[in-house]
Amino acid sequence: MNDNDYEREIEEQTDTDEGSGNRLILSTTIVLGVLLAGMIVFSVVYFYINMKNTRSLLSTSEYNEYDKYYVLITSSGDTDFWKSVYKGALEEAKNNNAYIEMMGDGLEDNLTKRDLVKIAINSHVDGIIVEGDDDSKTLNLLKDAMEAGIPVVTVASDVPGGERISYIGISGYNMGKEYGEQVASFIRSKKMDKCNVLVLMDDSLTSSSQSVILTAIKETVDSQEPDVQTSIENKIVSTSRDYAAEEEIRDIFVSENETPDIIICLSEKNTICVCQTVVDYNKVGEVEILGYYMSPTIKSAIEKKIIKSSMVVDTAQMGQKSVDAINEYLESGYVSELYLVDTKQADADNLDSFITEGGGEE
Predict the structure, then answer these.
(1) What's the pTM value of the predicted model, to 2 decimals?
(2) C-alpha–C-alpha distance, residues 262 and 186, integer Å
(3) What is the pLDDT of residues 235-244, one digit of tens each?
(4) What stretches of 99-243 show up as alpha helix (H) in DSSP?
(5) What's the gap between Cα 56 and its chain centre?
(6) How many CB atoms lie within 10 A of CB 224?
(7) pLDDT tens digits, one per residue of 257-311
(8) Distance from C-alpha of 185 to C-alpha of 221, rounded to nearest angstrom
(9) CA separation, residue 188 to residues 30, 113, 159, 182, 191 (Å)
């Protein structure tokens, strides 16, 4: 093979390689173009379908307009007790073309009850339903709300000074009397000549209302069992910081020289904490627990005989009457200063007649 033939062969081979490379590039370009076109078509179709669905939803959505806007404010909105109060209030509000919000629910910031009252006043709500307390700053805020023309209803716990249009709650004396009767019954059943009773109070409630309960317990026990040496003490449990109640209640079983024979709880949270503590420290059966409210946890504890009984408050009625009070005041300018809600003791004998949602009876 001469040089010319060799060069010609080289050129032919080069042309063949270049042709193959061009065809590969062309094929790749065509494939990418098809894929790109497919993605564009898919995106257009997907967007069209979503737009169609969105328009369909918008065309069928119902927007409710309400005449009034109320708020419910409490320091313990995450408990079953207050969730049930809110549910009762919401149902009653809607029946009267009003809407009520559990203020602060779902917010990440840890706002205090006073913060929420301030927000409610600045938002010019039509009515405020609030858990009362003894704090003078809270009282001043409620006064500001009333002066701004916003009616205030206290619920579950009242405020001193009457800075509200109405109070919806239970009779502290009657509740204390019922607790006292149970203490006296326990003393008789055990034929005791000495009994130590500890009443756990909640610092989020007014001291005056809890003092009435304590006085009624003592009067009832003294009148029914005058010959028995009964010591009735009280302890205020903190709610201002996380897990404070759990820590303070556990200290009762660790630090106290003598474990009480009976523990009376005046809140749902304290009831559950005491229940868990007696289980943790193997004190079931050694301490008689008289609780408050009816949640699934408390109902289960009664079934297991960890808790003797619990004071059940009709929380749905509490919420309903709170809204009724505001509605009546806005319509007539007048309203009763006090509405009492129903209570009943739940124990192993009548437990089936109670439901856990709403705290009422079936």
Answers:
(1) 0.74
(2) 9
(3) 888 766 657 7
(4) 113-122, 136-147, 172-190, 207-224
(5) 36
(6) 15
(7) 678 999 999 988 899 999 999 999 898 989 999 999 998 999 999 999 999 999 9
(8) 9
(9) 96, 43, 37, 10, 5
